[in-house]
Amino acid sequence: MNPSMAFPKTMQAVRLHGCGFENIRVDEIPVPEPNDDQLLVKVEAAGVCSSILKLVAQGSEHTFLNGWDLSRFPVILGDEGCVTVVRAGRNVADQYPVGKRYVTQPAVFHSPVNFRERYARNGEGMTRVAVGYTLPGHLSEYMLVPEEVLEAHCLLPVPAGTVPCFAGALCEPLSCVISAQDRHVHIFQKSPEAPRKPVLGLLKKGVALVIGAGPMGRLHAEAALRYRPRHLIVSDLSEERLRWVREALEEKARASRCELHAVTPDKLEELLRSVSGGRGADDIIAAVGVRKVQAEAQQLLACGGVLNLFGGLKRGEHVIDLDTLRVHYDEIRLCGSSGGAPSDVAEALRMVESGQIDPGRHLDRVGSLDQFPQALELVRTMAVDGKVVLYPGIRTTPLQCVKRWTASDEQAFLAEHRRAG
User: Fold this and answer.
1) Structural domains of the chain ordered from first start
2) Of 223, 230, 257, 338, which residue is 20 to 30 A from 132 by alpha carbon distance?
């Protein structure tokens, strides 16, 4: 431990006490004390993820909670964050030095270590737990990092001095995009008699289509450029979102020798026929959770094309028709993913550090921790046009609209609003 450092006895934390928005509270709770195999970290920045809406709606029925009783044991929310180690148990202090910054991979592939009795059947058969669910989340001033996170290598080091805190927090949603695009598989043969070889990722010099230009669709569109498709099409109902795509990505697409198109759905099929010579799209990412859109997207694929069902559908509406003739004769593929892995967060950090992606373009609001209920309501009603990041270390600060947020913007904002003392 590092007993010489002084810490407050209590902290603010956003906790869920049961199903529904009325059970979200900003509580004052004791600052946790790590044991010899745990860390205490200061949360520098925390993202507001739309996946929290599913947890709020399902409560203890959520898969990651597995029967955990929220009314008795409320959980600290927040699966996106950038943190700094402030205390380290003696068994992990050498590996995780005080003062070092990290980004968390919240999907922890490890069985429960602590509080097994709180899960159904004492956690029997569980192979995954999650930060911001039954493991403490980032929507608090300080966060306990338990054994499961460390043993699963789910803390990824932030390159010193090059990645601002908000960008670190946004590496988690970016990691989900990286993981999803890695699920695309295209089969190649050098000659008719040569063996087939699978290649992961979007088809280079192909036609890629992203359906939906919301926060995650935009991340998908920018990340898709690393595969250098010949054409990248982004489709959305909102002209304002399409304008963002053109303004933010046109120059970058040109540098990648990619022709960027941002169109409304009524113009999509004609454009796709034109740029693909009637073949269709080699890769489609359905970044919207709309059943009809996902079902119809199958017909937009080229032979051998891949459809990624990235946008989750509501339970009860999650079954779509599959055109098995296209699967059989045209060899189309469907894929999906649920979150990323530590390697995806590491790749996200590399992309941010190298300038391959600009997370500041994807930020829409910033504010203090106590603004979380309002921020989540904006996410729920889709009244926010980008990601929301909260800074637990500042005093009460209303949500502020931002555009093209930078490291210097963050520093000035924190200096202005940081708590006294």
Assistant:
1) 10-172+340-417 (3.90.180.10), 184-335 (3.40.50.720)
2) 223
Residues 224, 212 contacting (CB under 8 angstroms): no
Residue type, 251: E
Tell me which residue of 59, 31, 57 sits closest to 143, measured CA to CA: 31
Q: Give every residue of the chain whose pLDDT is below 50, as ranges.
A: 1-4, 421
Q: Three-state SS for 162?
A: coil
Q: Identify which of 80, 207, 74 has the alpha carbon closest to the alpha carbon of residue 156.
A: 80
Residue 57's contacts (CB-CB under 8 Å, 6 or more residues apart) are 19, 20
What is the enclosing helix (H) or strand (E) of 188? strand 185-188
Q: What's at 87, amino acid-wise? A: R
Instruction: Fill in the amino acid letter for 200.
Output: L
pLDDT digits (tens, 9 = 90+) for 302-347: 999 999 999 888 778 889 999 999 999 999 999 998 888 999 999 9
**Helices (H), ranges, 183-285:** 215-224, 239-255, 265-276
Distance between alpha carbon 233 and the CA centroid of its chain, in Å?
22
Residue 45's nearest CA partner among 397, 396, 417, 388 is 388
Kindly state the DSSP code that residue 210 receives in the 8-state scheme. Answer: E
How far is residue 343's CA from residue 354's CA, in Å, rounded to a whole number?
A: 16
In contact, 166 and 45? CB cutoff 8 Å: yes
Compute φ and ψ for 28, nearest 5 degrees. -100, 115
SS3 at position 147: helix
Q: Which helix (H) or strand (E) holds 260?
A: strand 259-263
Burial profile 74-97: b = 16 or more Cβ within 10 angstroms, e = fewer: bbbbbbbbbbebbbbbeebbeebe
Distance CA 286, CA 290 (A): 9
The pLDDT score that the predictor gives to residue 337 is 86
* Listed residue (142, 152, 185) closest to 44, CA to CA: 142
- 391 token code pair: 């800074």
**Continuous segment of H or E residues that includes residue 319:** none
Owner of token pair 């829409």? 364
286 three-class SS: strand
